């Protein structure tokens, strides 16, 4: 009888230890994935003045200058919006491609971290408007990658919503290594992580 009581006590301690080990492993894994995402995040670049002018968000003396009333260097002639857009080289948002029917394999899922599979990363702009409003941090964008490595669709899902349009634009313009399954072209699904602002934030 004493033997059974001692055995049950040892089993109870072992079970509690196993449960604690599982919880610690889960917490460690989540922290490790978050740390990897933070380190491997594609950093946004400051919005160039030319792109800010095209958006109509350049501030002079604290006020916003509309592209309709922007003046040239002489300070007297008004520049039309159409002329200004032609003169400024800003990054237009790529149009999402129509997703054709596909019956082949799809690698990964919406939880697959794809930053390490990017062959050519387009960096998003950290817009002046987003900075002014205090929007910063990480943004996850769920992507569907075509057989040729181009992005078929991109949809932001976490982070400050003010940063989503630039993150989606950058994801759509990025190129991936071509997905391959058993030597045949495939599609891939997963997410990219973009960082707006300093890494310590």
Q: In words, what does this structure look like?
A:
It is a single chain. The protein has helices spanning 2-40, 49-55, 81-87, 128-132, 164-173, and strands at residues 42-43, 45-46, 58-60, 63-65, 106-107, 118-120, 125-126, 137-145, 151-156, 175-176, 180-181, 184-185, 187-196. With 201 residues, it is α/β, with parallel strands linked by helices. The chain has two domains: 1-40; 42-47 and 93-196, TolA/TonB C-terminal domain (2-Layer Sandwich), CATH 3.30.2420.10. Strands 1, 5, 8, 9 and 13 form a five-stranded mixed sheet that branches. A two-stranded parallel ribbon has the order 2-7. A two-stranded antiparallel sheet has the order 3-4. A hairpin with a 5-residue loop joins strand 8 and strand 9 (151-156). The longest helix is centred in the first third of the chain and has 39 residues, at 2-40. It is elongated, with a radius of gyration of 25 Å. Mean pLDDT is 75; it is low at 21-33 and 59-89.
């Amino acid at each position: 009888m004493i033997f059974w009581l001692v055995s049950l006590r040892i089993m109870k301690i072992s079970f509690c230890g196993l449960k604690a080990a599982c919880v610690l492993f889960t917490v460690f894994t989540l922290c490790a994935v978050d740390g990897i995402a933070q380190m491997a995040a594609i950093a946004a670049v400051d919005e160039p003045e030319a792109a800010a002018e095209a958006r109509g968000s350049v501030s002079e003396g604290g006020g916003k200058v509309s592209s309709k009333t922007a003046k040239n260097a002489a300070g007297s002639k008004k520049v039309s919006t159409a002329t200004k857009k032609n003169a400024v080289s800003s990054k237009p948002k790529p149009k999402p491609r129509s997703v054709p029917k596909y019956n082949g394999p799809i690698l990964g899922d919406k939880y697959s971290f794809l930053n390490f599979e990017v062959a050519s990363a387009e960096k998003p702009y950290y817009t002046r408007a987003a900075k002014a409003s205090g929007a910063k941090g990480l943004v996850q964008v769920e992507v569907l990658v075509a057989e040729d490595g181009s992005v078929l669709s991109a949809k932001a899902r976490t982070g400050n919503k003010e940063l989503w349009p630039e993150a989606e634009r950058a994801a759509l313009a990025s190129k991936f290594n071509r997905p391959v399954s058993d030597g045949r072209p495939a599609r891939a699904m997963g997410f990219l992580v973009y960082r707006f602002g300093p890494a310590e934030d």
